[in-house]
Amino acid sequence: METLSVLDEGRRLFHCSGVYEPAEDTWLTLAVLKQIMPTLKPLTCIDIGTGTGVLAAECNAENIYATDISPCAVLCAKRNLFRLNPLAEVAQCDLASCLRCPTRGPLLVVFNTPYLPAEERVDPCLDYAWSGGAEPALRVLESLAGCVSRLGGCFLLTTLGLWVEDILSTAKKLGLETAIAASERFFFEEIVVVKACSPRR
């Protein structure tokens, strides 16, 4: 039997073998995404490391792009987004490497980062969903900060409390205004959603 999550209004999100299943960090990110969307009113929404596509499914924008390095995740996101948010385009690439800066803003970039450094490679699809530490978030910041600053907009970056200072420091150096949008402790880990926005936002 297939497993799934039920979203608002009874919409169904299917989970897929070899793809990170939405968990506490996903739902915390989703809550912040829903909160920021009405005030930011992004013209373009980018979901990095989309997995099942659940965050892209909640993006309300004219242009929605979802990326994932895992072919398993890309297929899963396409299946879900075909029903949940057919405007979304899904591409397989490393973080934002396949994306160009949009011509109009505001721009919202959401990334529930793979924040646990993996020491062993077990599943070729799941490995990328789990391993990374601070490095993937810093790469996304550095590659898209110019777009967010120029167009107006925000990053939402979900990570472990362990990596927050590195992310905040890098975002500030890139000229972004930062804040902790949400945090919650689960078991022995603190999950934090960092908001980093252009000064005019």
Summed up:
This protein is 33% helix and 27% strand. With 201 residues, the protein is α/β, with parallel strands linked by helices.
List keywords for this structure.
201 residues, alpha/beta, Rossmann fold, seven-stranded mixed sheet, 6 helices, 33% helix
What oligomeric assembly is this protein in? single chain
Mean pLDDT: 89
What is the fold-level CATH name, i.e. the topology? Rossmann fold
Large-scale geometry: globular
The strand order across the widest sheet is 5-4-3-6-7-9-8
CATH-assigned homologous superfamily: Vaccinia Virus protein VP39
User: How can the largest sheet be summarized?
Assistant: 7 strands, mixed
Number of helices: 6
- Radius of gyration equals 16 Å
Given as residue ranges, the uncertain stretches (5+ residues, pLDDT < 50) are: none
Strand content: 25-35%
Q: Based on DSSP secondary structure assignment, what is the total number of beta strands?
A: 9
Overall structural class, as computed from helix and strand content, comes to: alpha/beta
Give the SSE order as H and E letters: EEHEHEHEEHHEHEE
Task: Assign a percent range to the helix content.
Answer: 25-40%
CATH architecture: 3-Layer(aba) Sandwich
Briefly, what CATH class?
Answer: Alpha Beta
The first-to-last residue Cα distance is: 45 Å
Could you explain the architecture of this structure?
The protein has helices at residues 24-40, 54-57, 71-84, 127-130, 135-151, 164-173, and strands at residues 4-6, 12-14, 44-48, 63-68, 88-92, 107-112, 153-160, 177-186, 189-197. The protein has 201 residues and is α/β, with parallel strands linked by helices. It has a single domain, classed as Vaccinia Virus protein VP39 (Rossmann fold, 3-Layer(aba) Sandwich), CATH 3.40.50. The strands form two sheets. It has a seven-stranded mixed beta sheet with strand order 5-4-3-6-7-9-8, with helices on both faces. A two-stranded antiparallel sheet has the order 1-2. Strand 8 and strand 9 (189-197) form a beta hairpin.
